[in-house]
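User: Reviewer 2 asked us to show a designed sequence for the structure in our supplementary figure. I'm pasting the structure tokens here. Could you produce the per-position amino acids so we can include them in the response letter?
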């Protein structure tokens, strides 16, 4: 019974070690070491030398891992310092961007307010200019009307003056009409000429705007002249001359009144335009000041916007630089972990072989023999 149990335990132990050998052989290093040990054992290599080779290999793995650990730690410390510096630069840039945006948030509303004020002043100026233009146009109409009135009065005056000249240039003796100290005698032919002249003048004056009343008066004088011609009435002739003089005086007085009214309109226009021009100058000054303020604000906004765009570009570039650096650091950490895992696996393989050589040499020899029997030419 004891013998049977012992055989069972031995069989179980060999099966366990065989599984260990199979696991070792799954790695390239393990298979290479097993092949090397098997060849060394078959060629009579001293066991101590095999152990020393494995111990040296294990020590090399430990030394390599310590060096790799130190290098990785130093590299990751540099990474941490680089990333911290980049993050600080980004924080400074973000702060600068916030400051620049705050400046823009202050300047833009002020500029927009100034633009609104300028537009309002420009509208007010346009309305004032409209008043100036209308006032000027109206004044020009008044001046043109007065000029037409002056010309009409001049025409009527010339008609009366010509009629008076026809009388005074044709004084004859011995029959006289008394006119003050002047005695005149007019022939029927002259009277007919005066009547025709004033009749023509009256007709033309009737078509005018300002002297129609005087035209009617001249028409009456023309009729009187005709009557004087028909009746050879010296009294009527004298009355015609007197009426011409009276009408000329009335015309002169009327024109004096018209000129005075025109002068009053001119003074009123000039006074009113002076006020309007003062207002216009105020608008122009205000608009000019607002334009300068708006331009100054716009220059500051443009400069601030340019600075902000530069900061944003630097943020973008710096963010990319940080992300690239973080990627490098993460990739290096991943590569380090992969090397460590591979090296830990190799160390474990060496350690397992050392353990097998120390405790299960018989099983190892049987395992090698089974491989040779199975046709493994790597061990022959």
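Assistant: Here is a per-position design you can include in the supplement:
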């Amino acid at each position: 019974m004891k013998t049977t149990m012992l055989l069972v335990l031995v069989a179980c132990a060999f099966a366990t070690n065989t599984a260990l050998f199979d696991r070792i052989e799954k790695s390239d290093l393990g298979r290479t070491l097993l092949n090397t040990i098997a060849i060394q054992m078959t060629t009579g290599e001293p066991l101590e030398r095999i152990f020393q080779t494995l111990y040296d290999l294990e020590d090399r793995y430990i030394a390599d891992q310590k060096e790799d650990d130190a290098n990785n730690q130093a590299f990751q410390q540099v990474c941490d310092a680089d990333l911290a510096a980049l993050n600080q630069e980004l924080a400074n840039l973000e702060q600068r961007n916030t400051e620049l945006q705050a400046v823009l948030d202050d300047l833009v509303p002020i500029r927009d307010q100034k633009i609104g004020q300028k537009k309002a002043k420009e509208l007010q100026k346009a309305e004032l200019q409209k008043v100036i233009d209308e006032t000027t146009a109206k004044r020009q109409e008044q001046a043109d009307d007065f000029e037409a009135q002056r010309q009409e009065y001049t025409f009527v005056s010339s008609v009366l003056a010509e009629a008076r000249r026809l009388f005074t240039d044709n004084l004859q003796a011995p029959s006289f009409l008394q006119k003050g100290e002047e005695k005149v005698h007019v022939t029927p032919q002259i009277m007919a000429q005066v009547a025709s002249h004033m009749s023509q003048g009256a007709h033309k004056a009737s078509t005018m705007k300002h002297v129609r009343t005087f035209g009617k008066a001249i028409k009456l004088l023309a009729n009187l002249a005709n009557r004087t011609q028909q009746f050879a009435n010296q009294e009527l002739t004298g009355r015609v001359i007197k009426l011409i003089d009276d009408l000329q005086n009335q015309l002169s007085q009327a024109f004096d009144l018209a000129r005075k009214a025109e002068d009053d309109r001119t003074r009123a226009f000039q006074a009113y335009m002076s006020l309007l021009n003062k207002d216009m100058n105020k608008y122009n000054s205000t608009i000019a000041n607002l334009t300068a303020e708006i331009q100054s604000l716009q220059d500051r906004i443009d400069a601030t916007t340019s600075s902000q765009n530069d900061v944003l570009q630097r943020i973008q570039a710096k963010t990319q630089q940080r992300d690239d650096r973080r990627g490098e650091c993460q990739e290096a950490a991943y590569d380090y972990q992969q090397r460590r895992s591979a090296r830990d696996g190799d160390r474990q393989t060496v350690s397992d072989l050392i353990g097998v050589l120390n405790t299960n040499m018989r099983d190892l020899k049987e395992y090698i023999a089974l491989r040779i029997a199975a046709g493994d030419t790597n061990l022959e």
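For the response letter, you might also mention the following. Residues 118 and 197 are 66 Å apart (CA to CA). The first strand starts at residue 177 and ends at 179.
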